[in-house]
Amino acid sequence: MKKREFLKAAGATSLMSMVPDAVRSGAWAQGSDAPEKKEVRIGFIPLTDCSSVVMASVMEFDKKYGIKIVPSKEASWAAVRDKLVNGELDAAHVLWGLIYGVQMGLGGPKKDMAILMNLNHNGQAFTLSRKLYDKGIKDASSLAKLIATQKGEYTFAQTFPTGTHAMWLYYWLATYGVHPFQDVKTITVPPPQMVANMRVGNMDGYCVGEPWPYRAIVDKIGFTAETTQGLWKDHPEKALGTSAEWVAKYPRTARAMTAAIIDAGRWIDASLSNRQKTAEVVSDKSYVNTDKEVIVARMLGRYDNGIGKVWDDKDHMKFYNDGHVPFPYLSDGMWFMTQHRRWGLLKEDPDYFAVAKKVNRLDVYRDAAAMAKVPVPKNELRTSKLIDGVVWDGRDPKKYASAFKVKVA
Known about the structure:
By secondary structure, the chain is an alpha/beta fold. Helices cover 41% and strands 16% of the residues. The protein is built from 20 helices and 14 strands. The chain has helices at 3-9, 21-25, 51-58, 61-64, 77-86, 96-104, 130-134, 140-149, 164-175, 194-199, 212-218, 228-231, 244-249, 251-269, 272-282, 292-299, 330-342, 352-359, 362-372, 397-402, and strands at residues 39-44, 68-73, 91-95, 113-118, 124-129, 155-158, 185-188, 205-209, 222-227, 238-243, 302-304, 310-312, 384-385, 391-392. The strands form four sheets. Strands 2-1-3-10-4 form a five-stranded mixed β-sheet, sandwiched between helices. The protein has a five-stranded mixed β-sheet with strand order 7-6-8-5-9. Strand 11 (302-304) and strand 12 (310-312) form a beta hairpin. The protein is globular and about 70 Å long.
């Protein structure tokens, strides 16, 4: 369905009145500076954090830069990986750890990859089943005590073996003394299938992006034990990923695509009204395919954990935040490699900084940011304190990776 046809069908034609005239009336570049490829196919998984990719297309931010973004709904992260590697997709809304996993050849194809920008911070959650709640489990501490004292098979799901949700889940469990490979069973389930699998009892808990944590609460089958921003405030989540080969072939297209999605993220974060409009669009069956209300609550930072706690979370999902969100910090890429090393996915320490410098295309990002007129952070590394009090600053990744008590020996 074409963009304008979708807007009409979805009853969202009023959105077009909000598109800046400059976006609707002209393209960015002409002549030798024009994008080499006019239409770009960007894969996405049905998750709230695909919003900036979708809105770059729907709101026609892409047109300003001389391209047309065609969002392509995919069934699983494995499908996204394979289509990026074989060129079936130009780029994708994708897990940071997936891109690094392919770069390092972990559990699948090995190919030089590229991260052009970060798409969002925050907005994932750890969901536990109502069956656990009925046993008195309300958080990670009580969960760890149950696992230690009542032997049995406890199953937890993540979305891709090297991905963000796997790393969040393992870090969260390990912080409370639960070894994710020795004390429990972990399985891989595509994001949209999480709720259905919990409903039939296939897992005790899962980590995934919105709206699937809140969907479990609405459906009364699970509750939020912790958010990922509680694990790591303003953590990297999805990236705009592609292959290094594609960037080399279409450098101006890569720049234009990145600029358009930066613009879309900035627009989403500009007002609560824009976030509500975004929820209305991405809830459609063409995209996330769930009730708008399930998306909009946590998009606005209005949290309900499903067992009595309600709060406004200022650290909810963000797409821009004065230019800090889209910048692909080298330390963010390095962090995922430290966790791959911690859990035995990497058998030895790589040159963390060199690999991150190669994958995170800061050159493309800076050019795109200049086009979109957004500020660029001065430092390529950033400092964060995680839930266990350990500080990550990217300065000594080898030491950081080896210092955890709970790890694969």
